[in-house]
Amino acid sequence: MARYVYDFTEGGRDMAALLGGKGSNLAEMTRLGLPVPPGFTLTTEACRAFLDTGGEPPGMWEEISEHLTAVESAAGRLLGQPDDPLLLSVRSGARFSMPGMMETILDIGLNDESVLGLAKVSGSKRFAWDSYRRLVQMFGRTVMGVDGDLFERAIAAHKAQRGTRDDHDLDAAELAVLTEEFKAIIRRETGEDFPQDPAEQLRRAVLAVFESWNGERARLYRRREHIPDDLGTAVNVQRMVFGNLGPDSGSGVAFTRDPATGRPGLYGDYLPDAQGEDVVSGIRNTVPLTELERLDPLSYRRLLDHMGTLERHYRDLCDIEFTIERGTLWMLQTRVGKRTAEAAFVLAAALADEGVVTPDEGLARVSGEGLAQLMFPRFDTSATGDPLARGVPASPGAAVGAVVFDSAEAVRRAAAGEKVVLVRQETTPDDLPGMIAAQAVLTSRGGKTSHAAVVARGMGKVCVCGAEELAVDTGRRRFTTRDGTVVEEGTVLSVDGTAGAVYPGSVPLVDSAVMRFLEAGAGDHATTGVVDAVARALTRADSVRQLEVRANADTPEDAARARRFGAQGIGLCRTEHMFLGERRRLVEEMVLAGTDVQRDRALAALLPLQREDFTGILEAMDGLPVTIRLLDPPLHEFLPDRTELAVRIAAAEARGERPDAHDVELLTAVNRMHEENPMLGLRGVRLGLVVPGLVAMQVRAIGEAVAQRLLAGGAPRAEIMVPLVGDVRELRIVRAEVQRVLAEVSETSGVPVTCPVGTMIELPRAALTAGRIAGEAEFFSFGTNDLTQTTWGFSRDDVEAEFFSAYLDKGVFPVSPFETLDRDGVGRLVRLAVAEGRAARPDLKIGVCGEHGGDPDSVHFFHTAGLDYVSCSPFRVPVARLEAGRAAL
Ligand code: ADP
Ligand code: MG
Ligand code: MG
């Protein structure tokens, strides 16, 4: 038969799955000989069995009774014994810490009789009645489901009567009256009496804690923290010790080091004459832990001692909860403490220096997400009031600027040296110039994977999206907040992308030292504290990682920055941005060309411009590989918007004028090229097969750039990448064209120009036929954005807003598959393509480009899948380096 109960002396820290975090650590402290009030733990299995069947698992109660008897005989008294009651706490404690999310019930065992016994043996009536009223209150609320406010109101009424704001000023008689009132509330609300039988109290408290696993708060918390719903919680039943027995008693919380900075020192709060819940609830003001040294030097010294023991034993920062009962110190909880990103890095370095952990263990304890946070400037919000609005924290960091409502205005003001915040309902690719010009992007619609969010993250730009309380009126160039505040264009705002908040005016910024260090390239600095710690973590990561890290970069500036951030090449150089701006006219000519001659003329005009782009990038990445992707998006993306054209023509006609002939011609072309599903339409390699001369022009530009760099004494390493291939024959045709053009370039330039030709794997069919495709490809690069879209059969742009949030809410996605690679589906295609591609061509180089390349979880997957490199936006390069290192540990 299953075993459901473990004594604290039987468990240990490695049993967290079964005993929960709190239970396993209580057991560990017990084994270390620290003063832990005795008790036992009901397993998470018991909880799951209870939640599954809705009934108490058979045999559980007998087990509890046995363990209870042991606790009773050790204490020399019985649970609720009338003249000298043993009291118990019943504490929740799941596998992963969910602070305050589930229930804990203290002082089980008190009733109308034993409260009198407790008063006598403790010598304090006030204490006894305070404990009893706490029990009735907690039990009433958590076990019997009474609205907690009813109790709080009753307390408030008594305090008002007393003319005090402190619970502490209520005396024994008042607390006795209050307890009776609480019991009456319970009776009124539930039709049932507060149970007097201690055994019944215990049993119902245990089941209530089990049930609190499925409480609304707990469920929400798990969703946000990505904790699975089916783990269940353990329950710890423990002898009570009392911090509310007078001035020589008290409760506190402490950290073995500063959890904000990681620096050594003792941090914590203490509250004399109080039970632990009072410390965090903020009912009374705590004193700094150092005060304890004065109040009770012996307990203070013991506490320091135990904290030292714990930190050495856990080899990490620990936080603890403790209670002092009449000069005796009791340890009630410990765990490896939560910390800020800064503290994580500083601590990892310090513990490695102290020889407490190895450098690899130090690396394991920091994270890419933490590094990303440290790279952004931060607001000092200590003196700011409430935010104007809140939204989704889509891209972290802090930015200040004047509000503008469209891309053109953003560009205009930025060019004049002004800092701006671009505010839109949502953004589209047309807003790109404005997004680039702005310090931050703020939208009233869309989630973490909306256009604004994805693009902003890619650019390392601050973004708050989905601030639904904002009514954005682009026409009148203003927005209105929920409380009716009107914000006009030009008003200065502060946007906090880390917290997802927007403040009026200019909140002061704290610069990121880490970013300054990374931007400067490999360390020539005297570094201190967190910067030094980051540098060391990155160095370690670089020395152990197997994945190379490249960057996605389309301009020489981005390439240069990526290189400073440690990129080992460019994994994706998109050529479509090079078709925008003034060059649109040439693209239009190419599209509209009625004859080969006209088209060739347009292409010929584009050629030198493209060549220049490539030369600059190859120069910035000299000696390192640059993977250039041939044009990917449908051509009509470069033409004016269909509706806009139609409106322009109609307006001209309405004025009785002849519409512009060029507009009419364009509209015809746009109509002809219109696609219902452009994502699945004429794009990628299909363009190369259908639009004569396009591939040749791009390849010639690349080849000539390579030749030029070679002649200039450089070491260009261009690689040509074909997008959206689904069948090897597509690639074969394009590849032949590439070889032909490169041969021509070699011939005319007089320098031999060769470039590896590879393909993106971004269609399921490509992955499924990777073995054959590898016959024509020297490298693969997984385009995981498209591969995710085509595997799931949804387009990111179309489904993101409503449908994604519903899917996240309902738990279909634990996290958006565009943020973190879907290992089960898309990941399986990746593994298959890697295996079959390498089988066909053992030296096949395989990488990934797209958002996932900079996502920590996905980087770990790509490591295990055996890829050669990941490529991500320049700002994510340090993050990817760190995570690739951690993945290799
Ligand atoms: P949480 O998980 O929300 O921190 P805990 O189980 O730690 O809940 O309980 C909350 C508080 O109750 C603790 O901080 C501690 O002060 C108090 N408490 C719990 N068990 C005992 C006990 N056996 N004796 C005295 N106080 C206790
Ligand atoms: Mg606790
Ligand atoms: Mg793609």
From TrEMBL:
User: What are the PEP-utilising enzyme mobile domain coordinates in residue numbering?
Assistant: 418-500
What is a GO molecular function of this protein?
pyruvate, phosphate dikinase activity
**What reactions does this protein catalyze?**
pyruvate + phosphate + ATP = phosphoenolpyruvate + AMP + diphosphate + H(+)
InterPro entries reported in the protein's UniProt record? ATP_grasp_subdomain_1, PEP-util_enz_mobile_dom, PEP_util_AS, PEP_util_C, Phosphohistidine_dom_sf, PPDK_AMP/ATP-bd, Pyruvate_phosphate_dikinase, Pyrv/PenolPyrv_kinase-like_dom
Alphabetically sorted, this entry's keywords are: ATP-binding, Kinase, Magnesium, Metal-binding, Nucleotide-binding, Pyruvate, Transferase
What EC number(s) is this enzyme filed under?
A: 2.7.9.1
**Pyruvate phosphate dikinase AMP/ATP-binding domain: from which residue to which, for each copy?**
62-285
Tell me which residues make up the PEP-utilising enzyme C-terminal domain: 536-885
Cofactor requirements of the protein: Mg(2+)
Signal peptide feature range = none
What PROSITE patterns would the database entry show? PEP_ENZYMES_PHOS_SITE
Q: In which family does this protein belong, per the annotation?
A: Belongs to the PEP-utilizing enzyme family.
Which protein are we looking at?
Pyruvate, phosphate dikinase
Corresponding gene? ppdK
